[in-house]
Amino acid sequence: MKKEVQDLIDKGEMLPLMEEFYTIQGEGAHTGTAAYFIRIGGCDVGCHWCDVKESWNAKLHPPTATDTIVAHAKAYANTVVITGGEPLMWSLDYITNQLQKNQIKTHIETSGAYSFSGVWDWFCLSPKKTKLPLAEVYPEADELKMIIHNNSDFEFAEQQAKLVSTDCKLYLQPEWSKRDKMTPLIVDYVMKNPKWKISLQTHKYLDIP
Predict the structure, then answer these.
(1) Residue 108: per-residue pLDDT
(2) 99 is in which domain, residue-wise?
(3) How crowded is residue 172: how many other Cβ atoms within 10 Å of its Cβ?
(4) Is 43 helix (H, G, I), strand (E, B) or coil?
(5) Number of domains in the chain
(6) 27-70 pLDDT, tens per residue?
(7) What does the pLDDT read at residue 2?
(8) Residue ranges at the known binding site
(9) β-bridge partners, 35
(10) Does residue 198 contact residue 170 with C-beta atoms inside 8 Å?
(11) Binding-site residue ranges for S-adenosyl-L-methionine
C-alpha cells in the first residue's frame, strides 16, 4: 500500500469500506428505526459464528475516501451505524466529526477490543470471549448486547454487565443459528432477571439487509 494512502487511513480520512446500505436497524435499543449502515472491513476477534466473516480481511476491502462515505450517508439518513468487522480497529474521529457536522447521529456496534475513538450519540458494546473489551471502553457503553450461543454465555453476560455503567441498557440476543434452542432460555432468564431485555435479529426475520 502506498504511504500516502496509509497516512490517510491512519488519520481516518480513508477507511477500508466493505459495504454501505440504507435499511432498518434490526437489533437492540433502536430496533425498527431507519439508519444508514457503514460496514468497515477488518476484524481479528474471531467469533466462529460470525455471519460476516468476509469482513475479517481488511485487505479485501478497498480504502475509500471518508468524505465520499459521508456524502453517501447524507443522501439517505439522519442516523448512521458504523459496524464491521471491528470498526474500532480504525480511527473514527474524522468520520464521526464529519457526520455530526452534517446533523447526522452517530451510532457504533463494536466488541470494544480496540482503543476508543469517535464521537458517538449511541455506543453499543457487544463483548466477545475471544478478545475482551478494553477497560476504557466499558464506561462509554449506552447499550450492552450479549450474544447467547450456549448456556455459559449467561454467566459471561452477567460478568460483563458488572463493568458497564448503571445507565447502560442490557440486552440478551440469541445467536442466529441457535435461536430455536436459546430463545426460550433467554425468555425464561429475562423473566427471572428483568434488568435484561431481549434483542432479536429482526432484520433477518424481515428478510432485509
Answers:
(1) 98
(2) 3-206
(3) 24
(4) coil
(5) 1
(6) 999 999 999 999 999 999 999 889 899 999 999 999 999 999 99
(7) 87
(8) 24-26, 39, 43, 47, 49-51, 83, 85, 126-128, 209
(9) 23
(10) no
(11) 49-51, 85, 126-128
Residue 182: give its domain's CATH number.
3.20.20.70
Binding residues for [4Fe-4S] cluster: 43, 47, 50
Closest CA to 94 of 156, 192, 14, 22: 14
Per the annotation, where are the binding residues for substrate? 24-26, 39, 83, 209
Sign of CA dihedral 173, 176, 177, 180: positive
- Which residues, 6+ apart, have CB-to-CB distance to 152 below 8 Å? none
Q: What radius of gyration, in Å, describes the C-alpha atoms of the chain?
A: 17
pTM score of the predicted model: 0.96
Percent of the chain residues topping a pLDDT of 90: 97
Q: Maximum Cα–Cα distance for the chain, whole Å?
A: 56
